[in-house]
Amino acid sequence: MPYITNTREEIIAERKRLKAEYRELFDEVSKLLFQHDPIGINFEDNTDEYEPEVGTILPKLRNCESPEDVRKMVHQEFTSWFGASTAGPEEHYSKIATEIWEYWQRFNVI
Q: What angle do helix axes 94-107 and 67-82 make, rounded to 10 degrees?
């Protein structure tokens, strides 16, 4: 896991800032990750479990030019957060990446 130096209050403030900046996109990507559950942490009542990862994924979408770029970036984020063995192979993120890319295009956040 990445070394985190932020206080709980700073983390909460940053998440609120990201939610305000990305509006519905933040919630949609969070729901998407929870639904696909790439690392097996969906216990049905912890629907905000992927919000920290969404917070690192959304700002990096600006550098993506295709679903393949999104797949690579999302996989890198999950590898950074959870390690390579937990994240699994990049190919397992194809459907997630395609859907995130569609949301990104629809919300026209670029």
A: 120
